[in-house]
Amino acid sequence: MVRQLVQLNRMGDGTVYLQITRGPAPRSHLFPKETKPTLIGYCTSLSRPLQLQTNGMTAVTIPDIRWLQCDIKSLNLLPNTLAKQEAADAGAEEAILHRDGIVTECSASNLMMVRNGIIHTHPANHLILHGITREIVLRLAAEEGITIIEEPFHLGDLRTADELFITSTTVEIASIVEVDGYVIGGGIPGPLTRKLQQLFESKIQSTT
Amino acid sequence: MVRQLVQLNRMGDGTVYLQITRGPAPRSHLFPKETKPTLIGYCTSLSRPLQLQTNGMTAVTIPDIRWLQCDIKSLNLLPNTLAKQEAADAGAEEAILHRDGIVTECSASNLMMVRNGIIHTHPANHLILHGITREIVLRLAAEEGITIIEEPFHLGDLRTADELFITSTTVEIASIVEVDGYVIGGGIPGPLTRKLQQLFESKIQSTT
């Protein structure tokens, strides 16, 4: 279906969006019993955010007030949109979420912190969405022999980071060079981030 | 608009449903800048649930995994629907939610516990939806000279309750006569619940 969408729309660079529901039914909290699922798919032309990947982006930290099943990908994204908008209102491009000081992820991306050559990121449990790009990047890093520690870390650790970067489907890999106005890694993407961007690029080129 | 909907549809007993959005815009976490809000309203004929009000209903307790802004009425109801369905799967009619043992409310209604003639209910903060029926019932109770304690209480307190009842727009006031298989108040709606049902009924009759 994805292949078909891309062909029918003669897509170059862009995104394919898929959405599935239980199907139409009268409004009720109980699941409908005999509905046919509705599957919606569409694609949108979109340039890859190369400038963002080169320059990095800014972020602010915001309390993570989401539910306790963030590993479910659903359209119940009100807290994510509120966080993203709060970041934009503060002049930043992404919101780094924390639950009582524990850094979880961002409003629409996963977060990785590099310190002494080691990647730290929140474990893939119920408190974050296990992004596909996250998984691919961790695999590429592991293949490169980079140590990965999937354990919760604190807000305060962000300022001690050598590098910070996010992963997401549309952004791919991009540095966060400023958090709450504090400059990280000299304000430019660090060597490990750039290395992973190169590996990711190679992977894209080799599969298209 | 509500009056008009009711007149146009020649409604007897039923519900009027209103929904407002920021308006149509391309999918993005950021709020759209220049959209006109979409307001949708419709009504549905619905008999008042008199049998439920007379006989009471059963409930099971389920962890409250919702976000930390439950006072916002929105369509991000996935945790509520999951809880309601889990209750139904367990053969019960409602889910009593608790956050680490603190009873908050139900999947689609507010919960009140009666003990020694006093009404206990969770305070109207960010952890519950401040239902209109909740507010009206508390006002009726106060006018009747009943003491109301709006403070968090524990799961264990439920078993010591003389009466338990829920309030919601469609259910109005209904007893919970069984929680996790444990019978409350002899399995029938208690005197204070019935008193409030009468007062609520009088209020309906006097305003229609």
Q: Which key terms come to mind for this protein?
A:
two-stranded antiparallel ribbon; alpha+beta; ten-stranded mixed β-sheet; Class-IV_PLP-Dep_Aminotrnsfr (chains A, B); D-amino Acid Aminotransferase, Chain A, domain 2; globular; homodimer; 208 residues
What does the model show?
- With 208 residues, the first copy, chain A, is α+β, with helices and mostly antiparallel strands.
- Chain A has two domains: 2-45, no CATH class; 50-207, Alpha-Beta Barrel (D-amino Acid Aminotransferase, Chain A, domain 2).
- Chain A is built from five helices and twelve strands.
- In chain A, the strands form two sheets. In chain A, strands 3, 4, 5, 6, 7, 8, 9, 10, 11 and 12 form a ten-stranded mixed β-sheet that branches.
- The interface between A and B is medium-sized, with 26 and 26 residues.
Multimer state: homodimer
How far apart are the termini of chain A?
Answer: 17 Å
Tell me, briefly, the overall form of chain A: globular
Largest interface: A-B, 26 and 26 residues
Bin the strand percentage of chain A.
25-35%
Give the helix proportion of chain A (percent range): 25-40%
Major pleated sheet of chain A: 10 strands, mixed
What is the third-level CATH name, the topology of the largest domain in chain A?
Answer: D-amino Acid Aminotransferase, Chain A, domain 2
Q: Order of SSEs of chain A, N→C?
A: HEEHEHEEEEHEEEEEH
- The name of the CATH architecture of the largest domain in chain A is Alpha-Beta Barrel
The low-confidence parts of chain A are none
Average pLDDT taken over every residue of chain A: 96
Instruction: Tell me the name of the CATH homologous superfamily of the largest domain in chain A.
Output: D-amino Acid Aminotransferase, subunit A, domain 2
Which CATH class of the largest domain in chain A is shown?
Alpha Beta
